[in-house]
């Protein structure tokens, strides 16, 4: 119902094609009717389960059918557990229970969704179903087996992210899988270091991968805490991160992702009260020193890149922050020069530059 | 990308074609795609009805049939499925409530449906009592989209008191990121559509004081690309639906003037199919009802002449929201 | 069955080189009567791959300085005396070429569905072999050429300042053929790319060498215009088929495979194939007013056939050709260091490119080559040698000392690849020869006869090679409608893959 990236074409069907399509519709609706009428009776049988397999392969967006499939699994494929949420499947005949162990069932379900996920990587319902399957593994399987399934899942997420480095679902799902693998339920321990290294790899493959930069910003406090970093180590860490993003800006000064991450680091220096500070123990003088260094480095970029609006914006912002730290009133020295540049290079946001000027007065 | 503006200097809004497009949507029963998208039927009805309202043709869809269809999707527990025979979900439930609000049908909901109170209870039961966030249905997926849907529907029904609004608000706050934006859950990357759900939820709850409006406005205004269109995240392509997500959020925090209004109007108009009607994600792509709704909503927010003003929190006509909320 | 000489042929094609084979592919759905012959006993002509035994025979037949007009001065040797190499375990390409992912050849292979019979391997990193300045020894080292922003970002040997110049250039190239970039280079289009890089982007000699290597320019003196086009092709090809590579190589022998797929399509379409048969003579029948012109074609087996059209290769240079010296070596190591995957999620490369820029000292005596030397390294994944070995294809423009330079380049390259001061990898077999080619491919059309010139000697496939094929196709389809022209090399799958009903599983 929402088409993306599909070229507009005039669709002309011959009568034959129209009849063929109607034939397909009839088959599809026939399958759908069978599922609905059986589900309406509340009998979640193996036969119904097989019908959901057929339909979901045709249309994985059909969330109701995913729900029917879950009910079938609970009613005739998975063993009964006490932890199950109440459902209307209690009267299913125990004899229909499959002999397969829960582990095999869950594995084969995971395998079933795999090709669907590859074909429809942005379909919420497939991701949800997998998440449900994996939570069932924790409920039902011995710990090592459950852990194995979740570890395999992390591999899958990496694969998905290699195919589409910005997939919003995949990144969210990755954080979810990692959190589970770290949890006591799976006898886990922190994976912050590995995940931090993963963001480095992804960034080295594509500097514009803001999803990776974002995740990195979340992992930093965990990594520092886990390393038991003292103030000195934290300062060194901050310096390394600044070097990294500055190296990025050196080759990609037009890249928003890099500037957002730089702004994040600067907010950590300035300590504007947003999120946990990387180096909580900076004195005001130290903050000023750090900030001045960044301003100098950015100014240096102008030598080779004089037509990049982000540089002027950063100089403007960071100098205003510097003024606040130094408790100086009155605008930053070159405020007017930078604003003039910004208006010329970025006329689309003219209204914003006017507001900035107004505020600075 | 640049030629989008050049080609469409002033093609004008093809209102009649768009109205016709929306009205033909329900006649395409000999196309497989019609049946394959049934899981979005109620949402589709909401998008279509919205588009008609924004295009100032609210009368085009027959009221009684619309209400009949909406009520036919309701379950005993009060929730609505996407179509008869589809499971209840909060996303189709909010669409049902919004449609009924637009056709002034709450009385019919009480008289012929399961009633407002049961709908309210269905939604309220989906709140996670620990975090304040909301599930989509009984299977437990959580997302700020669902929280927004809950606050939207409950406020229209006058039943916000059924849920813990403060907790919901603090959940939204926990989804804020360093860049000023919001994600689908705590820790998730900022995304324009999720920002809309979070900011609009806070607006409905009357807690816009919790938004870092300066930072958010900056991030949102950077979504506009040289071709005039808006994208959903840094370094992504533009798409008409973000005309709504980004623009409505900018409107809520009063910063629409931070982007180039004319360039965006040109981009949106460039995405319409002037002959057959409807809007697409980008110029030259297939149109659909979703982009038609958000394309026309965007134009309305931009003050395009002849359009019905839209409420940025609800994506519904302003006057209808004002009537219902008594604002 | 109707005999060959009784058949009224629509086209006789001579030679199974790439162009004739693509031509056969283009006509494979036309229903025309086609006779396709090749005087060689193998497919592919100058693009062929040969087993070791075939190479030995081929070398013996191409020993002389004149050779057959294309290949000459061939010499095969087994430096290690390894007589036991299994001939069939090897297939050496006579003229291997990379194909950029944005090449028109690939889109034609896709639209014609011929790609289904091909397996494409990734071409990985490009390196430069540089003498180690710091050490007294003569050892050289390989530097990987950064060609994406992320490569430049992770590179630790280029200064921050130089990186900016490089990035500005890479960005410039991406839209080099639009304003305002054209204003910058048009007036200097004929200048050398090296001077343009120095003057406009302040790139130092090392970075200039990097960029020029990416152009694969044979003489290293590529012009600004041609150089920008080549770099543009390289950069825009990066990532098109997947992360981390800009070019592919068809497994089992590169363009030879493409040629064979073309011939196979021709055969499936009903063309008759004869190897070991060439055209000896052609006589035009006098054309009466109402009957179209026809040819009597005398084949090398003395059979005479009648055809409406003839398509063949000239097989020798017209006027001044270019000459390339080639040294192909089989080495006893898998050389893992040059086939490393450097991009997350990228396929393992089967081909690597090493350049030794002009003027680089080769070995201890400081001799240097006037022209760059290129080595295409093929891992065993390319299907040309057994596991644990590699094939190195070295080439440089022919000069009196080219053979000696190639030999030294091979030794330096192997020395730089020996790990931890162990013995360098050994050469098991090597083949030297010279190949003549042209700068720009052309076709000579006379009535209903099309004669292709020699191919260019490029190391990366040149899309201009496709133009003569299209011209020949137009020659035999004089009255083609616009629709037929639009369908040139656009076919559906023969198996009818879309006929299967997804609703019945």
Automatic annotation (TrEMBL), chain A:
Biological-process GO terms, alphabetical: prenylation
Superkingdom per UniProt: Eukaryota
E.C. no: 2.5.1.60
Record's GO cellular component terms: Rab-protein geranylgeranyltransferase complex
Enzymatic reactions: geranylgeranyl diphosphate + L-cysteinyl-[protein] = S-geranylgeranyl-L-cysteinyl-[protein] + diphosphate
Keywords: Prenyltransferase, Repeat, Transferase
Database matches in SUPFAM superfamilies: Protein prenylyltransferase (SSF48439)
One MF term in the entry's GO annotations: Rab geranylgeranyltransferase activity
Pfam families: PPTA
Region of interest (Disordered), residue spans: 82-102
Extent of Polar residues compositional bias: 83-102
Record family assignment: Belongs to the protein prenyltransferase subunit alpha family.
Task of the protein: Catalyzes the transfer of a geranyl-geranyl moiety from geranyl-geranyl pyrophosphate to cysteines occuring in specific C-terminal amino acid sequences.
Protein name: Geranylgeranyl transferase type-2 subunit alpha
Gene source species: Hypocrea atroviridis (strain ATCC 20476 / IMI 206040) (Trichoderma atroviride)
TrEMBL record, chain B:
Classification via InterPro entries: PGGT1B-like, Prenyltrans, Ptb1, Terpenoid_cyclase/PrenylTrfase
Keywords in alphabetical order: Metal-binding, Prenyltransferase, Repeat, Transferase, Zinc
GO function term, MF aspect, one: Rab geranylgeranyltransferase activity
Details of cofactor binding: Binds 1 zinc ion per subunit.
Transmembrane intervals: none
Catalytic activity: geranylgeranyl diphosphate + L-cysteinyl-[protein] = S-geranylgeranyl-L-cysteinyl-[protein] + diphosphate
Superkingdom of the organism of origin: Eukaryota
Keyword field contains Repeat: yes
Coiled-coil ranges (or none): none
EC number from the UniProt entry: 2.5.1.60
Cofactor(s) listed in the protein's UniProt record: Zn(2+)
GO cellular component, one term: Rab-protein geranylgeranyltransferase complex
Statement: the UniProt record of this protein carries the keyword Repressor: no
Residues covered by the Prenyltransferase alpha-alpha toroid domain: 13-316
PANTHER family per record: GERANYLGERANYL TRANSFERASE TYPE BETA SUBUNIT (PTHR11774), GERANYLGERANYL TRANSFERASE TYPE-2 SUBUNIT BETA (PTHR11774:SF11)
Family: Belongs to the protein prenyltransferase subunit beta family.
Annotated function: Catalyzes the transfer of a geranylgeranyl moiety from geranylgeranyl diphosphate to both cysteines of proteins with the C-terminal sequence -XXCC, -XCXC and -CCXX.
Protein name: Geranylgeranyl transferase type-2 subunit beta
Organism name: Hypocrea atroviridis (strain ATCC 20476 / IMI 206040)
Lineage: Eukaryota, Fungi, Dikarya, Ascomycota, Pezizomycotina
TrEMBL record, chain C:
Origin superkingdom: Eukaryota
MF-aspect GO terms: GDP-dissociation inhibitor activity
Gene Ontology CC: one annotated term: Rab-protein geranylgeranyltransferase complex
One Pfam family it belongs to: GDI
Gene3D superfamilies associated with the record: FAD/NAD(P)-binding domain, Guanine Nucleotide Dissociation Inhibitor, domain 1, Guanine Nucleotide Dissociation Inhibitor, domain 2
GO biological process, one term: vesicle-mediated transport
Family: Belongs to the Rab GDI family.
Name recorded for this polypeptide: Rab proteins geranylgeranyltransferase
Organism: Hypocrea atroviridis (strain ATCC 20476 / IMI 206040) (Trichoderma atroviride)
């Amino acid at each position: 119902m929402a088409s993306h990236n599909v070229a507009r074409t005039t669709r002309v069907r011959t009568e034959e094609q129209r009849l063929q399509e109607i034939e397909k519709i009839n088959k599809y609706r026939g399958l759908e009717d069978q599922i609905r009428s059986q589900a309406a009776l509340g009998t979640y049988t193996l036969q119904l389960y097989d019908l959901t397999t057929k339909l979901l392969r045709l249309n994985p967006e059909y969330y109701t059918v995913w729900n029917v499939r879950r009910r079938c699994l609970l009613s005739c494929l998975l063993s009964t557990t006490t932890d199950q949420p109440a459902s209307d499947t209690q009267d299913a005949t125990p004899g229909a229970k499959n002999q397969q162990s829960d582990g095999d069932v869950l594995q084969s379900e995971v395998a079933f969704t795999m090709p669907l996920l590859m074909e429809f990587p942005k379909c919420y319902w497939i991701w949800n179903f997998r998440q449900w399957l994996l939570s069932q593994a924790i409920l039902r399987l011995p710990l090592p087996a459950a852990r194995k399934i979740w570890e395999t899942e992390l591999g899958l997420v990496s694969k998905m992210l290699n195919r589409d480095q910005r997939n919003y679902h995949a990144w969210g799902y990755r954080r979810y899988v990692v959190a589970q693998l770290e949890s006591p339920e799976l006898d886990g321990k922190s994976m912050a270091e590995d995940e931090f290294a993963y963001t480095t790899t992804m960034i080295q493959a594509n500097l514009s991968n803001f999803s990776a930069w974002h995740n990195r910003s979340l992992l930093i406090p965990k990594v520092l805490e886990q390393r038991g970093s003292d103030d000195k180590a934290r300062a060194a860490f901050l310096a390394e991160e600044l070097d990294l993003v500055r190296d990025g800006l050196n080759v990609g000064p037009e890249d928003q992702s890099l500037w957002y991450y730089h702004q994040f680091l600067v907010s950590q220096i300035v300590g504007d009260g947003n999120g946990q500070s990387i180096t909580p123990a900076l004195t005001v003088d130290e903050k000023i020193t750090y900030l001045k260094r960044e301003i100098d480095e950015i100014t240096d970029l102008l030598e080779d890149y004089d037509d990049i609006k982000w540089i002027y914006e950063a100089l403007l912002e960071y100098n205003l922050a510097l003024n606040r730290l130094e408790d100086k009133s009155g605008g930053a020295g070159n405020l007017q020069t930078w604003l003039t540049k910004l208006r010329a290079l970025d006329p689309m946001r003219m209204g914003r530059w006017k507001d900035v000027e107004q505020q600075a007065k | 990308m640049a030629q989008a503006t050049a080609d469409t200097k002033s093609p004008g809004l093809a209102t009649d074609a768009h109205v016709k497009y929306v009205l033909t949507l329900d006649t395409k029963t000999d196309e497989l795609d019609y049946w394959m998208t049934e899981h979005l039927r109620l949402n589709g009805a909401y998008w279509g009805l919205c588009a008609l309202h924004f295009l100032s043709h609210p009368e085009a869809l027959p009221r009684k049939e619309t209400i009949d269809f909406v009520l036919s999707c309701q379950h005993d527990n009060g929730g609505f499925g996407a179509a008869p025979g589809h499971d209840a979900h909060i996303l189709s439930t909010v669409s049902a409530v919004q449609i009924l609000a637009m056709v002034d049908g709450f009385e019919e909901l009480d008289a012929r449906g399961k009633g407002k109170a049961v709908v309210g209870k269905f939604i309220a039961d989906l709140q996670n009592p620990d975090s304040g966030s909301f599930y989509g249905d009984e299977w437990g997926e959580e997302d700020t989209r669902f929280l927004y849907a809950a606050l939207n529907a409950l406020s229209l029904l006058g039943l916000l008191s059924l849920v813990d609004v403060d907790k919901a608000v603090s959940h939204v706050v926990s989804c804020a990121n360093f860049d000023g934006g919001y994600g689908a859950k705590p820790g998730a990357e900022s995304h324009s559509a999720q920002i809309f759900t979070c900011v609009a939820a806070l607006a409905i709850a009357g807690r816009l004081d919790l938004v870092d409006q300066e930072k958010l406005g900056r991030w949102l205004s950077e979504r506009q690309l040289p071709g005039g269109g808006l994208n959903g995240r840094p370094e992504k392509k533009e798409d008409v639906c973000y005309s709504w997500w980004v623009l409505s959020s900018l409107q809520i925090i009063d910063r629409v003037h931070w982007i180039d209004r004319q360039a965006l109007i040109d981009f949106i108009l460039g995405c319409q199919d002037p002959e057959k009607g409807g809007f697409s994600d980008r110029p030259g792509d297939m149109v659909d009802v979703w982009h038609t709704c958000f394309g026309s909503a965007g134009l309305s927010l931009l003050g395009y002449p002849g359009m019905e003003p839209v409420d940025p929190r609800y994506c519904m006509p302003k006057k209808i929201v004002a009537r219902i909320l008594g604002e | 069955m109707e005999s060959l000489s009784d058949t009224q042929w629509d086209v006789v094609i001579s030679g199974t080189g790439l162009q004739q084979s693509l031509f056969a592919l283009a006509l494979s759905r036309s229903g025309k009567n086609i006779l396709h012959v090749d005087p060689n006993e193998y497919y592919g002509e100058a693009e062929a791959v040969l087993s070791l035994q075939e190479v030995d025979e081929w070398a013996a037949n191409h020993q002389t300085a004149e050779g057959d007009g294309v290949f000459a001065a061939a010499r095969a040797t087994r430096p290690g005396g390894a007589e036991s190499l299994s001939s069939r375990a090897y297939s050496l390409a006579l003229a291997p070429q990379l194909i950029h992912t944005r090449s028109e050849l690939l889109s034609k292979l896709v639209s014609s569905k011929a790609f289904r019979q091909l397996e494409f391997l990734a071409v990985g990193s490009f390196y430069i072999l540089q003498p180690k300045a710091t050490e007294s020894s003569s050892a050289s080292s390989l530097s990987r050429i950064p060609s994406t922003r992320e490569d430049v970002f992770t590179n630790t040997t280029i200064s921050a300042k130089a990186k900016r110049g490089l990035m500005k250039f890479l960005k410039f190239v991406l839209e080099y053929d639009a304003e305002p970039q054209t204003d910058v280079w048009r007036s200097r289009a004929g200048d050398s790319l090296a001077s343009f890089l120095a003057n406009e982007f302040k790139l130092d000699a090392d970075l200039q060498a990097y960029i020029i290597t990416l152009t694969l320019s044979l003489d290293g003196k590529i012009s600004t215009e041609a150089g920008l086009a080549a770099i543009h092709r390289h950069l825009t090809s990066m990532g098109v088929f997947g992360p981390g590579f800009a070019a592919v190589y068809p497994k089992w022998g590169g363009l030879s495979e493409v040629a064979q797929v073309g011939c196979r399509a021709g055969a499936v379409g009903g063309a008759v194939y004869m190897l070991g048969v060439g055209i000896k003579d052609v006589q035009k029948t006098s054309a009466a007013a109402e009957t179209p012109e026809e040819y009597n074609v005398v084949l090398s087996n003395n059979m005479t056939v009648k055809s409406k059209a003839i398509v063949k290769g000239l097989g020798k240079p017209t006027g001044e050709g270019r000459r390339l010296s080639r040294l192909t070596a089989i080495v006893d190591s898998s050389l893992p260091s040059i086939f490393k995957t450097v991009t997350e999620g990228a396929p393992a490369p089967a081909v690597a490119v090493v350049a030794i820029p002009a003027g680089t000292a080769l070995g201890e005596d400081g001799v240097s080559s006037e022209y760059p030397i290129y080595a295409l390294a093929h891992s065993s994944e390319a299907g040309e040698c057994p596991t644990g070995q590699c094939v190195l294809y070295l080439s440089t423009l022919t000069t009196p000392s080219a053979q000696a330079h190639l030999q030294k380049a091979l030794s330096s390259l192997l020395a730089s690849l020996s790990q931890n001061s162990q013995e360098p990898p050994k050469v098991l077999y090597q083949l030297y020869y010279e190949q003549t080619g042209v700068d720009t491919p052309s076709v000579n059309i006379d009535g209903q006869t099309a004669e292709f010139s020699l191919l260019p000697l490029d190391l990366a496939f040149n899309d201009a090679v496709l133009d003569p094929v299209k011209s020949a196709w137009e020659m035999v389809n004089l009255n083609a409608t616009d629709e037929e022209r639009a369908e040139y090399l656009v076919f559906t799958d023969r198996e009818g893959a879309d006929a299967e009903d997804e609703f019945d599983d």
